[in-house]
């Protein structure tokens, strides 16, 4: 614990003097370096947290928390599966679906995509896609009507609007007297949807489940049943519980972490790597503290000698310079935290303003998964970054302070 003497002298040395302007400049550079490093680290981690949150929400808006599938193809007794799944207290919703890869054509335009058959009155229990359908187009999904709702980007690619018709071609072929021909069906475009994620807006089309089952030749079967839990983070163990309830029925249950495990692990790895890389910026600024204190120690050799002759211990001398370095670290960290928090909270406003000013899009929707730059500021990240900055600043003071404490009074005053 520092005594008032160390604190008083250390704070006094931090103030600029006419004869050590350069030392004060280095101190200011150290403060700014730490502040910039902390600001950049808080902002980048907040943006990456925002990306993770938005991607998770948008992905789960289309894939649900867990999926029950048959191991050998279509699921015939899906009503029983839905009933048993809904009986679990942690399951909020269960809905059947039919899914398959198809090719969609209109005139000379051709595009591949995923045809997803849903029950409109139940799909809202397991995903949010129904909330993003334009107007009342969802009401047009009636069995036997062969209406289709396209993602807005897919509709643009095909050049269709509500009221037009598209031809859906399945990968299965059928044998006729004319030879092997692909199976196809014309659908009426009832509307479009926009979930805000280009991968789905460009590659998914919704139809009624019975229409999809007909074109996929599943009869009364479905591809699987999608589940929604109370807490998406509990999906791994809840999926195992539901799977045990259905054990022996030839079904398997997969949760969202399994379907996108590599993707979310990559996001976590990127966050860790960015934290390490940007921490190096703070470390470089901390090394400036070392050079600052080394020059201060050389400049104050006579002062150190006088203090030693007056009875100051090596620990007191060491404490003086550790106070000076710690002040630099604390001020830089406070400025960095303030700047980082302010930038992270306003990045969703600043970035669109810059895009409008410069006339460019930083995140093109046809290249990146998200077209907006989200931010999710988390207090634990701010606390961890501030702690790292303070620890690095404190460690940077040890060696120069130790050198100052080893100054010999007689040697320092020989030429004074």
Q: What is the count of helical runs? A: 14
Total number of strands: 9
Global Rg:
32 Å
Mean of residue pLDDT?
Answer: 78
Label the structural class.
alpha+beta
- For the biggest β-sheet, the strand order reads 2-3-7-4-6-5
- Contiguous low-pLDDT stretches (5 residues minimum) are none
Q: State the domain count.
A: 2
Q: Tell me the β content.
A: 15-25%
Order of helices and strands: HHEHEEHEHEEHEHEHEHHHHHH
In short:
With 416 residues, this protein is an alpha+beta fold. It contains 14 helices and 9 strands. The protein has 2 domains: 4-58 and 263-412, no CATH class; 73-249, no CATH class.
Tell me about this structure.
It is a single chain. The chain has about 425 residues and is of the alpha+beta class. The protein folds into two domains: about 5-60 and about 265-410, no CATH class; about 75-250, no CATH class. The chain is about 55% helix and about 20% strand. It has a six-stranded mixed barrel. Helix 1 packs across helix 12 and helix 10 (about 260-300) crosses helix 12 (about 315-360).
